[in-house]
Design brief:
Chain lengths: 292, 292
């Protein structure tokens, strides 16, 4: 397989400024993302949300890319229209003009460098494994597909990587987070270049991934959130959580503890973007996936 | 002077959840803010902005409290109407039903615990000095009044304190920031109680303050922001800045340096709430103010 066109997307969420800034920089200085064997093309995700410094206008753009939704004639929301447009210029999904897509995100959680896989496609796994070999602090987050027709922007292309870097507040640029995001994209482009040149570097035979298991909601009393992340859990993404470990501290001073049967690893702990859904964190299990 | 009524306000900015959460907690458990010699009353600043998780709907509520604006009959914005309402129930300004107001804010900058004085009223200075004696990490930020008719919510009462605590993303609650905010309010209430009982604790004869001197804008090229906070300045609130020290790193890789004649101290470095005004930080000079 030769990769001919790579899409790099920023601003899928309008208040995550890092990707938007990098598109601006690379638009002015394209040599940073140019590789001799393929074209790299830049795309802005959600311009209206960017203008308003909000995650989205009507609904989360990064959930609008099911084929069913893209083909629907009842596009009521700004994001569903925008998804159709992006699918036209990046895709179309299933027969895409691009071979790979990178989608750049940030998080308010202490997630560090997080490489997100929405399936165990070998290309994606090896791409993530390579980036991790260059940036050993990077963690791989694996969301097993819950449906064949996936809703993520990345699902436009079979080969894809989402990168999520934090902690950073929404609506802020930090040079450290910008530099890490650049690192991920540059290593990713380098890897594709090596593949095209038949010079793939050695890839570990397996990688450790944090596999999404379930979301945890904030505690509610009478329909109102009544407790928040316990101080011992704040900023502790990827730290093992066992039965009896604190999850939440409540308005009345009481503590809610994890009571699951197995050791889990919380990620996206206290992510601002999920408050509107009352989600406090995701729980993962650790797994090893073979890259060959 | 006996203090009879104290107002505590949260949610003046709708995406600063800490104060909103504390109002909720204290509404359920009022004993935490009750003191025997005065009443403490709780007020929500901007309910519509809270609902939408935004700083404000039309304009910054915390700039709507000039007498001129409060008396105007041309109230076009949600916040100017809300300011009139709050002035009625907390104030009215100049003849207020409350003797003291505390206004709780948070910042994305690494400001720590910041006690904000908008004048050098001795009560306010001594209140801040007392809180600082109990929380030695607290810094005092002094904004010399630039006009007699001030626009801040706190200007409803002659005696007032704004507290600003960070870093914390907008739209997030953290137990550490919540605990620090509680600490400031409880110490403040304790101080007022001590005054009413004629048992004022010893107060330092002078306090060090960071006096606001000027705002610094992000660099602009062709009307667009073209550089961001230099990595050495990020999170370095209150650190001395001298001629030649880096301020910004630009799209083209160049660095913009501070070229002022005197040592200054940046605060609100990379504050998300000021991006819409293109403000990157405030520069202060250090001063000592007498409390007697």
């Amino acid at each position: 397989m030769t990769i001919q066109n790579v899409a790099v997307v920023g601003g899928t969420h309008g208040n995550e400024l890092t990707g938007i800034y990098l598109l601006n920089r690379w638009g002015k200085y394209p040599e940073k993302i140019e590789r001799s064997s393929f074209s790299t093309n830049l795309f802005v995700g959600n311009p209206k949300a960017i203008e308003q410094n909000r995650r989205f206008i009507d609904e989360d753009l990064n959930r609008c890319f099911t084929l069913a939704s893209l083909k629907s004639n009842e596009k009521a929301t700004y994001e569903s229209l925008r998804a159709s447009y992006l699918n036209q210029i990046i895709g179309p999904k299933g027969a895409s003009a691009h071979d790979v897509v990178f989608d750049m995100h940030t998080s308010t959680s202490n997630c560090g460098v997080m490489l997100i896989l929405m399936d165990d496609n070998k290309f994606n796994l090896r791409l993530a494994a390579y980036i991790q070999s260059q940036m050993p602090e990077a963690k791989i987050y694996f969301i097993p597909p819950s449906q064949t027709d996936q809703p993520y922007l990345n699902s436009i292309c079979a080969n894809s990587l989402a990168v999520e870097i934090g902690p950073i507040p929404q609506g802020v640029l930090r040079s450290d987070v910008t530099a890490l995001t650049e690192g991920v994209v540059y290593h990713g482009l380098d890897y594709i270049q090596s593949l095209n040149m038949n010079m793939e570097p050695p890839i570990p035979a397996s990688v450790e991934v944090f596999e999404f298991k379930e979301s945890v909601s904030f505690p509610m009393t009478d329909g109102v959130v009544s407790g928040y992340i316990h101080h011992s859990l704040q900023d502790s993404d990827y730290q093992a959580l066992g039965a009896g470990d604190p999850l939440f501290e409540c308005l009345d001073g009481s503590v809610i503890r994890y009571d699951g049967p197995e050791t889990v690893y919380p990620v996206f702990v206290n992510e601002a973007a999920y408050y509107y859904k009352n989600l406090a964190m995701s729980l993962c299990v650790k797994k090893s996936l073979r890259t060959d």
